[in-house]
Amino acid sequence: xxxxxxxxxxxxxxxxxxxxxxxxxxxxxxxxxxxxxxxxxxxxxxxxxxxxxxxxxxxxxxxxxxxxxxxxxxxxxxxxxxxxxxxxxxxxxxxxxxxxxxxxxxxxxxxxxxxxxxxxxxxxxxxxxxxxxxxxxxxxxxxxxxxxxxxxxxxxxxxxxxxxxxxxxxxxxxxxxxxxxxxxxxxxxxxxxxxxxxxxxxxxxxxxxxxxxxxxxxxxxxxxxxxxxxxxxxxxxxxxxxxxxxxxxxxxxxxxxxxxxxxxxxxxxxxxxxxxxxxxxxxxxxxxxxxxxxxxxxxxxxxxxxxxxxxxxxxxxxxxxxxxxxxxxxxxxxxxxxxxxxxxxxxxxxxxxxxxxxxxxxxxxxxxxxxxxxxxxxxxxxxxxxxxxxxxxxxxxxxxxxxxxxxxxxxxxxxxxxxxxxxxxxxxxxxxxxxxxxxxxxxxxxxxxxxxxxxxxxxxxxxxxxxxxxxxxxxxxxxxxxxxxxxxxx
Amino acid sequence: xxxxxxxxxxxxxxxxxxxxxxxxxxxxxxxxxxxxxxxxxxxxxxxxxxxxxxxxxxxxxxxxxxxxxxxxxxxxxxxxxxxxxxxxxxxx
Lengths: 490, 92
Description:
The complex is a heterodimer of chains A (490) and B (92).
Chain A: E1 17-19, E2 24-26, H1 27-43, E3 52-56, H2 60-72, E4 76-80, E5 101-105, E6 123-127, E7 144-148, E8 158-162, H3 163-177, E9 184-187, H4 194-207, E10 210-213, H5 219-229, E11 233-236, H6 238-247, E12 256-260, H7 266-276, E13 279-285, E14 289-293, H8 300-305, E15 314-319, E16 333-339, E17 345-347, E18 353-355, E19 358-359, E20 362-371, E21 377-382, E22 386-389, E23 392-395, H9 396-404, E24 409-420, E25 423-432, H10 440-450, E26 459-463, H11 476-485
Parallel strand pairs in A: 1-10, 3-4, 3-5, 4-7, 9-10, 9-11, 11-12, 12-13, 25-26
Antiparallel strand pairs in A: 1-2, 5-6, 7-8, 8-17, 13-14, 15-16, 16-20, 17-18, 19-20, 20-21, 22-23, 24-25
Chain B: H1 2-16, H2 41-55, H3 72-91
Helix pairs in contact in B: 1-3
C-alpha cells in the first residue's frame, strides 16, 4: 500500500522531511530507502508470510522501517523499546510466539553519522527462538498491524488492525484536523501507540508534512527541538499540556495542539489556549483508533466540554443500562462505538483470536459519556469510575473536577473504598500546589459548599504524588490499597 | 562559589523535589535525565521552578535547554553566572 503523500496539497511536498533531531530523511529519499530495505530483507530471507515485531522508538530509522512494513504489506507487531536494552540484543523474552523476527533499530546520538540507504548500519534482525507458526493463517490472510493494549490488569493482549483500516483512521484525522503538507508536526508522543501512530504520524505522512519525532520528550528537550524545527502543530498528552504552560515563559502561537489520552482540566485548557492557540481533545482507543475529535474551527465551548463529533464512518450510542442515576444524569451511560476502521479483534501471544469485546457489533468502550443534541460527545470517565451513593450516581470525574477548583490543589484522584453510610465509600487523594498550606479539614469543608452531599468524599488524603502505571496513567488500584495505610480526616 | 551552590542544589533536590533521592546519593556530575538521576518531565518542571524560587531569578525560554540542566555542576555554573550578571546590573 502506498503510504507516502497520498493526499498532499503541495507540489513540493517531496522536499519535506522526517527528522528526529539527529537524522533526517526527505520524502524524496524515502523511496530509495525502501528499495535498500527490500534488498536487505531479501538477503535476510524475510518473507511476507512471517509476522514481524518492530521495537519502535520515535526516531527516523524506526519510522522508516514502520512505513516500509506498511508499504510492502507485512504483518507486524509494534512494541516499545525496552529500557536500557541494546538494539542488538533486543527483548526476545517479551516477543509473542507468532512473531518470527524482531526488528530493532539503532539509536543515534549527536555527531554519529549514518547512511539511511544502508540498512545494515541501523537495522538489526533477531529470530524468535520460541517462534511457532500455529496462527492458522490469521496473521497473514491480509496484512495486519498488532498493537499492545495499554490495559493495567490481566495478561497483555494485542489488538489486530488491517493496514487498510489503520490508514482509514489516518485519513479521518487528516480530514478532521485539517492537516496539510505545509504543516510542521511535532510528535512527542510515542508512535508505537495508536494515538501517536494513527492520529499524528500516519496523517502527517499521508499529507507529506514535515515531521519531528521526539523521544523521551521533556520540557527542555521539547523547547530545544521546537526552536530548531519550528512546528505549527503538536500532538501531546494532557500532562504535557500542563508541563508546557507551567514551564515555558512566553506565549507561542501554534496552529493546532491535539491532546489525547486522558482528561484535560478545564482551567488547563483555558490557560493553554491563551498562550499557545487552538487546542482540541481527541478521543480514541487502541481498538478503535480515533473515534472523535473536535474540528479546530468549533467554538471554544465545544472544544473545552466535548471531544467533538464522531469521525467519518463512526457511529456512537449510549447504553444507559443500570448506570442511570436520576434526572441530573440524563443521557449518561456507557459509550458504545461502531467504527468502519476499527480493529479485527484481540489475539493472544500465540496469535489465536480472543474475540472482540463487542455486543451486536457495538464495541464497548467502558467509558461513560453522553451525546449532545449537536452530536458532540462528552466523555466523563471510565464506567468503573463511578459509584452509587444515596441512590444517586457519583462520577469520580465530577468530584475530581470540583475539588480541583479549590485554590492550592493541583491534582485530585477519587477512588472507592469500602462502604460508608451513604453507600460506597468515596476517597479523594489530593496533590497540593507549591506553597499550598491547605489542610484536609479545609478541603473537606469546602467540598460541602461545592459538591452535593452525596458527592463529598468520606476521606481525603494529601499525598506528595500519585502512583503511576507504566503508561503514565494514575494507578487507581494502588490508591485503593493506600487508603488502608494512610491517616484520614473525616 | 559553585561548590556551595552544588550543595545547595543537592539539598533542594533531596528535600523539596519529589524524586526519592538523598543528598549523599546525588552525584553532581551525573546527568539529570535518564541514565543518571532520572528526573522525568514533571520533576524537571518542578526543579526549574525551585531554582527560580531559591535563587530569585527567572529563566527565559532560550535558557531552558538540556545543556543548562545536563548535571548539577553545569546548573550551578549557570546560576552563578546569572547571579553575577544580576549583581552587575544592580550596580550599574
